[in-house]
Amino acid sequence: MKKIEEEIKQYQKYDLDGALKKAYVVALKNPEFKKLINTIKVKEDIAINYTTKLEETVSELENCSKCKSLMMCKNKVIGFVYYPLPLNDKLDFNYVACKYKKKELKEHENIRTNFFEMPLEIRKAKMSDIDVNDAKRVGIIKWLKKFYDDFKKDKHLKGLYLHGSFGSGKTYLISALLNELSKENNTAVIVYYPELLRSLKESFENNNFADRINEIKKVDLLLLDDIGAETVSSWNRDEILGTILQYRMDNKLSTFFTSNLTMKELEEHFILNKSSEEQIKARRIVERIKQLTENEKLISENRRK
Ligand code: ADP
Ligand code: MG
């Protein structure tokens, strides 16, 4: 490998500031940087003016290479890469959708909900696709329709705690409502709650953690899907869930839950040991959920194939 100084000499032919040259040569030591230069087919005398920005792109592409879903995104703008395209004798940097974002945009049509670990049929759920022939679901469907109409006038409506049998359509029905409202400029987030907690634990060290929690706290419409299926710890119960619920209660933000557990069972689920302190903490969470929601039950045939 040549010494940096020798390589700099090679660039003496460019009549450019020495610092720029040096930075560029150092950046070229990174094979990913070199690869980017080759991919976009930019001339070196142009690229040399953009070392810092190009390094930003390289670092975002490195994030992408390790990324498995949009909610894991570590880039500055979630779902996008700051990417250069040669334009005359310049580089034009734009935010370009990553593969996950492109897929999501295509699947969603106008749905603007942010999903975390939700299956495709839920991401695409629409109110017009709801099968209305199941008598057991008519009550819930009417409730959702009323919410949809009322939300246009009042954005501080109570959500739903929808519990009941596995596969009865709880997640699908609420997602259809939130997706529909997301098309009308309301922000919506649907998260598979047990997976959210796992991922938060992992992302605790990086700075996306606070952004993610903030989005969940502040979004107009939130669905915490499958609450009660998570492994409870005092950290995720009191610090994460407790904080989210308190914020949403204080700001009267519409919040939905689906669960296989009744509210009573959920309260027991939150008790970590028999101490009275634990019972109070579990009660405190359930009281917040009760404040935020109306309670409905959905027992119907299992629609999962
Ligand atoms: P739950 O959350 O109650 O366990 P889901 O909402 O996941 O159940 O629904 C189970 C399956 O049935 C999913 O594959 C979902 O997409 C499908 N499903 C539920 N309701 C409908 C509906 N009205 N129209 C079409 N598919 C539905
Ligand atoms: Mg579900």
Give a written overview of the molecule.
Helix 8 packs parallel to helix 9 (170-182) and helix 13 (263-269) runs antiparallel to helix 14. The protein is elongated and about 75 Å long. The mean pLDDT is 90. The chain has a 6-stranded parallel sheet with strand order 3-5-6-7-4-8, with helices on both faces. The chain starts with a helix and ends in a 7-residue tail after the last strand. It has helices at residues 4-10, 18-28, 31-40, 44-47, 51-65, 99-108, 120-123, 138-151, 170-182, 193-203, 208-218, 234-250, 263-269, 276-292; strands spanning 80-87, 90-97, 114-116, 159-164, 188-192, 221-225, 254-259, 293-298. It is an alpha/beta fold. Adenosine-5'-diphosphate is lined by residues 121, 129-131, 166-172, 258, 303-304.
Uncertain parts: none
Biggest sheet strand line-up: 3-5-6-7-4-8
Number of helices: 14
Backbone structural class: alpha/beta
Ligands (ions, cofactors included): adenosine-5'-diphosphate, magnesium ion
Q: Please give the number of β-strands.
A: 8
Rg to the nearest angstrom? 25 Å
Instruction: Write the element-wise H/E pattern from the N-terminal end onward.
Output: HHHHHEEHEHHEHEHHEHEHHE
Strand content: 15-25%
Percent helix, as a range, is 40-55%
The CATH architecture name of the largest domain reads 3-Layer(aba) Sandwich
Mean pLDDT: 90
Q: What count of domains describes the coordinates?
A: 2
